[in-house]
Structures are given as C-alpha cells and as structure tokens.
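Quick review question:
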C-alpha cells in the first residue's frame, strides 16, 4: 500500500472515529438532559466539562509535542488514553438513561400531554372548588342565623380571599403559556426541558392554590384545594395531580400566604 493510500485510510478512520464520538456524545448529552430534569445549570456545566475534558485528551493524544509538560510523549499519550476511557465510561450513565427513555418514548409523550391537560383544567377545578366553598359557607352562616348584612360581609370577604382580583389575569398568562407547542420528540433536547417546566408548573400552581385555599374562616367545615383534588381523584372524576394535605389552623381570621410563580395578590 502506497504512502498516499495509507494517508487516505488513516484519514477515513479518523473521520469515522470523530463521527462515532460525536454520535456517542450527542446521545449522552440527551441522556444527561433526561437525567437532570429541572437542573438546567448542572446539565450545562456537566456537558461542557465532559466536552472540554474529551477535547483536551484527544488533543494531547494526537499532538506530537506535548501541549503541557508531562514528561515524555509515551506517558502523555497513556494519560490521554486513560482520560478518554474514563470519560467514555462516565458517559455510559446518561447514555443508558437515554436508551431507557427511548424504549419508553410513548410513556414520555403521554406524560407531557397528561401534565399539560392537568394544568389546563386546574384553574376551572379550583374555580368550582372556590364557589362551592363560598356557597357552603353562606348556607352555614344563614343556618347559624347571622344577620343578612353580616352574612354578605363575611361571604364577600371569603370570596376576595379565595378569588383575588388579579386571578383572571394570571389564568390568561397560564393559558397563553400552555398554548405553545410542546415538543415530544425523544431526540430533541427541548423535550426533557419542556417536560421539566410542565412538572414544575404543576407543582407550583397546586401549591399556590393550596396557599389561597388555606384561608379558613371560623365556622367553615372545609378542606384545602389539594384535599379536594384527592377526593375527586378517589371518585375518578378528574386526573389532576395531587399534593399532600396541608395542616391548617382554623381561626376567625384568614391566614396570609406568599405566592410563587404567577404571583396572585389577595
């Protein structure tokens, strides 16, 4: 085989090696995204560190002169090979995660669609819950023979607490956010990031409604929003995700709560 042919074969092998490494790195990159859902900063930092480390090892292995002082060339290349091997082994962890997701991609797509549907119906379910509580409270006050003026004042106060003035504006923002297209392609890095955003929103919105519904007036025999959802779930009338029940101190005064994402002012 001539010298030119040797160079061609070497070049082709190098090209195939680079393509294989890039393919491996991409799937490991996706696996890292699925593995670290909701931790975008860690995902970026680990991916960049892995890529930089691999690049330095390949550079040290291929360059004739050592880019830094590590003694003789043989020692430098041995260290570079060990580094590449270690990085490839580390990359197996996210790669295995990606393979698991790929083998269950139908479940991934169902999770994204299901979580989005939960969020779409959460506002209307809370609205039903709030109005039911208001109606029950009014009936209880009338049963206890409160004066009509006092009944109107207390019911209006509870309504303002459960249904703050800016709630409709917040719901419009949520609906607009949910109306965007949510990727479900397992090969897209936007898919795990989108799923993470939906899951975080589901948790945050449920906690927000739990905080609003933690306002318990004296004489009410009621439950917080998450417990209401749990009751609906047990009767198979909804599929909205549940949150643990809150411990509530019943008092004649409402309990003030700070809000999280999509702040609601009472």
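Suggested answer, residue by residue:
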């Amino acid at each position: 085989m001539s010298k030119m042919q040797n160079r061609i074969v070497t070049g082709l092998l190098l090209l195939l090696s680079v393509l294989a490494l890039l393919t491996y790195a991409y799937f490991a990159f996706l696996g890292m995204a699925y593995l670290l859902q909701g931790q975008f900063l860690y995902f970026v930092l680990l991916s960049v560190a892995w890529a930089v480390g691999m690049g330095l090892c390949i550079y040290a292995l291929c360059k004739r002169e050592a880019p830094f002082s590590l003694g003789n060339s043989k020692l430098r290349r041995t260290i570079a090979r060990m580094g590449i091997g270690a990085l490839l082994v580390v990359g197996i962890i996210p790669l295995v995660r990606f393979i698991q997701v790929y083998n269950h991609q139908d479940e991934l797509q169902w999770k994204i669609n299901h979580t989005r549907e939960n969020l779409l119906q959460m506002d209307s379910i809370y609205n039903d819950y709030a109005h039911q509580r208001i109606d029950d409270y009014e009936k209880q006050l009338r049963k206890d023979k409160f004066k009509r003026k006092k009944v109107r004042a207390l019911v209006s106060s509870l309504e303002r607490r459960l249904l703050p003035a800016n709630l409709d504006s917040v719901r419009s923002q949520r609906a607009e956010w949910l109306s965007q297209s949510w990727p479900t392609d397992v090969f897209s890095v936007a898919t795990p990031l989108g799923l993470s955003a939906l899951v975080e929103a589901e948790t945050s919105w449920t906690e927000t409604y739990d905080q609003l519904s933690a306002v318990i007036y004296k004489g009410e025999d009621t439950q917080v929003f998450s417990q209401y959802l749990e009751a609906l779930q047990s009767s198979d009338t909804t599929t909205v995700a549940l949150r643990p029940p809150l411990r509530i101190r019943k008092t004649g005064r409402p309990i003030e709560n700070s809000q999280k994402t999509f702040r609601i002012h009472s």
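Why it works: Residues 22 and 115 are 33 Å apart (CA to CA). The two ends are 83 Å apart (CA to CA).
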